[in-house]
Design a protein that fits this description.
By secondary structure, the protein is of the alpha/beta class. It folds into two domains: about 55 residues, PGBD-like superfamily/PGBD (Muramoyl-pentapeptide Carboxypeptidase, domain 1, Orthogonal Bundle); about 90 residues, RlpA-like domain (Barwin-like endoglucanases, Beta Barrel), CATH 2.40.40.10. About 20% of the residues lie in helices and about 20% in strands. Strands 1-5-2-4-3-6 form a six-stranded mixed β-barrel. A hairpin with a 3-residue loop joins strand 3 and strand 4. It is elongated, with a radius of gyration of 17 Å.
Length: about 180
């Protein structure tokens, strides 16, 4: 079953890399795909949208992706699995975004709240620690949550994504 796609400034991961490769193939983007949607990728998306009579907003959703891919739907990779030597930790996980009411757009470390960030109890998982979260990918502990112990708060780009994630008990892997 095909999945929806949303690539916008600040997005990271497989979807971004897929869009970047298509933009490179069609001459709208130069360089190598790095999986990070920055200003150059946004500008390339806008150029593609303008050239193809689409709404020019610099965001690659399902419509733009369909035009970019010649009518194909986005197919995400299988849920990521981890096969390294990290230490396993069982956590209660919730989700948040900078769009959530009352939350800052910045982490306790001073970085922007974005996908790839988690909030932690620094006495349990120190700030700066890299982790692997099955179904989400790698993340870095850059924020502090208002909780203690084996709980993490996983950052998403939108409030809707955070709501969909909800609360889950997970096995995560400490990478360093």
């Amino acid at each position: 079953m095909a999945a929806s796609i949303l690539v916008k400034e600040g997005s990271r991961g497989h979807a971004v890399e897929t869009v970047q490769n298509l933009l490179i193939e069609q001459g709208y983007l130069t360089g190598a795909a790095d999986g990070v949607c920055g200003p150059q990728t946004v500008e390339a998306i806008k150029k593609f949208q303008e050239a193809n009579g689409l709404e020019v907003d610099g965001i690659c959703g399902d419509g733009t992706y369909s035009a970019l891919s010649g009518g194909a739907s986005y197919e995400p990779p299988a849920i990521e699995s981890y096969s390294g030597n990290g230490r396993t930790v069982y956590v209660s996980a919730t989700a948040y975004s900078s769009q959530d009411p009352g939350l800052s757009a910045y982490t306790a470390s001073g970085t922007k709240v974005r996908r790839g960030v988690i909030a932690v109890d620094p006495n349990t998982i120190p700030l700066g620690t890299r982790v692997f979260i099955p179904g989400y990918g790698e993340a870095v502990a850059e924020d502090i949550g208002g909780f203690r112990g084996n709980h993490i708060d996983i950052a998403f780009d939108t409030h809707g994504e955070a709501i969909i994630f909800g609360r889950q008990n997970l096995e995560i892997y400490i990478l360093d």
